Amino acid sequence: MKANRLCSFVLAGVILAAGMTGCSGSGASSSGASVNSSSGDSSAATEADKSPVTLNIAWWGSQTRNTYTQKLLDMYHQKYPNISFTGTPSGYDSYEQKLSTQAAGNELPDIMQMDYTFISEFTKNGSLADLSSYVSDKTIDLSNADQSLVDSGKINGKLSAIVIAETAPTVAYNPDVLKDAGVAEPTDGWTWDDLLNDCIAIHKKTQGFGFGTTIPSNSVDWIFNYYLRQYGKSLYDSEGKTLGYSDDKYFIDFINQFKKMQDEKAEPTVDEYTQINARGKEQSLVVQGKAGFMFEWANYPTIVTSANPNLKLVTMPNNSKTIKAMYLKPSMFFSISNNSKHKKESAEFINWFLNDIEANKVINAERGVPISSTIRDEMKTSLTAQNKAEFKYIDEVSKNSSQVSPPDPAGSAEIRTKLNDEFDAVLYGKKTEKQAAADFRKESDEVLSRNS
Amino acid sequence: MKSLTKKAFQSKRSKDNATGYVLIAPWLIGFFLMFLIPMVISLYLSFTNYTMLNVPKWIGLKNYSRMLTDKDFWQSLKVTFSYTFILVPLRLAFALAVAMILNTKHKGLGVYRAVYYIPSIIGGSIAVSIIWKEIFGNNGVLMSLLGAFGVHQKVSVLGNPHTAIWAIISLGVWQFGSSMLIFLAALKQIPATYYEAAKIDGAGPFCIFRKITLPMITPVIFFNLVLQLINGFKVFTEGYIITDGGPMNSTLFYVLNLYRRAFTYFDMGYSCALAWILILIMGIFTAILFKTQDSWVYYEKK
User: What is the predicted ipTM?
Assistant: First the structure.
């Protein structure tokens, strides 16, 4: 009897031990290793330089970006052999959700790529470290960067995000498609009617699509916001407590254009677009030569250059002759987690990323135009034609733009979905434009008041 | 066997109990850490305004009262109920029919059993959902096949708010294999003497089915019903991958809405409330089934 009991205890112990190791092993690999499980060295300056450090870094992007970013991490590791990385790339769609789940568990990576839309939320809850001290002691050297751009990473007096690159909204187009359709390439100062007519003309001539996406999409809110900027309005008011426009005719006019395009078959239906969109940026209609125009960011041609190197950029159409609706936008930021045990090493990596010419040659402006003027000048000799066009575009926009709209308020994710749903309802013919506009206003007011 | 005094018996029993607890300790620890404690925390959070990024603040029943006027909540209930109450009868009917066909003594039936069972193992996976999307989606397999026969759909099955849910229901029905195996086992339990007696009395096949087969397998029907009903309410992966809420929210399943609320809108407190309401609903249906089983489930009493 005693031997039996001893056996069962030993068995239970073995099973427990196996279970524990199994748990921690899979946990580490699936969540990219929490900061606490990496080396527990104190961050005394001299020791940190020599002892091995593993930094967790997360970013979003396409396969191209993932490949060259991994190359960058290897380059840095070769330069500083004591620093190694655990990189966790992902797509953009679930990136914010992934970060917020990690924030709730106090498991944020040391270095995180951040977007303008969500830095304020993460700053307000204390997830991000204040990097002003690293900037003032030149660990991160921002002396060659445009100050207003750097300030866009300052939330509530805290410099919680370092801008990596700048970009601007654009209409990206495929010049070959336009040529086949006999449509002249658009120029600065064109209007929304010009865009509409061009798209319809392309469809009539080539049986392809004029416009390469549908309007309900992940980016509909910034496009609608741009449309409102032309009239001196914006999607959200300055305090983020209500919508920034009071006349529903803007909503109605905006969606009517795309309804017309859809009726004329100049843009894909929601059904067709959903299927295409699931296949990745390189499969988009404009890239594949099956459509002419799409709304995008200035670094889009560089992102898809492996699939089609000929895409071109033009400013967004503008119905106003006086208001400068275009704007420069920080394309993305790097932030350091407040819980990181290796803040100094992380800051040094960010500095290298921004200011090292070899690194930037690898990056090749894929994340946007580098913020350091020195880097921009040094790169001019090695730029591809695509990059030159992107840099030139940003230069031109910077001379003809106004201040970027403030970051989206809390609740914007839900409002974006509601906006999509209302536009969907109009395109499917389930609601009139007027009804959809009124419903959208009611729904967003409710969301914004709940979140303030 | 030694006879024990009362005291020795009790101490032996508690020693046996201790051994038992030690052996199931791994599962018990998992149960507490991964299940019971998170459940209690989620109940607490459902009364707060937690967004995953703030300190939860108590707001009482506000989350629950918000549901009453939330359009998405009612839509998700409608979608989930229609999905479940169409899928479960269809799936069980298929399972029973195929089980009856396989309940014979032909050679090679083992192969068919395995083939029908495989979808239920792999069906809930993301890979199969992506395949389903390519089949029923725009320019997918179905559209091209129909096109080859001259039938040109304007909108794919997945793009039409009226038909998108049927694509997902079909995925659920395709996975009938697990229910079928259970029915098969139950069918084999029915004593052959009943069938012989019925044949001697001259009963036709439908009569035999209604009067002998069906009553004898009611316990298994009950079991499958409860299981499939609960699984039906929990549908998520298919909805998320194939249509992500579908054209005009026509496939916005309850758990999909819950997930979106929690992780896209950062409305975690409200999501916890939604989760507890789902438990309540599943509990009510299960209780109804259990209460009525006396009237229709036949358990052989020995």
Answer: 0.80
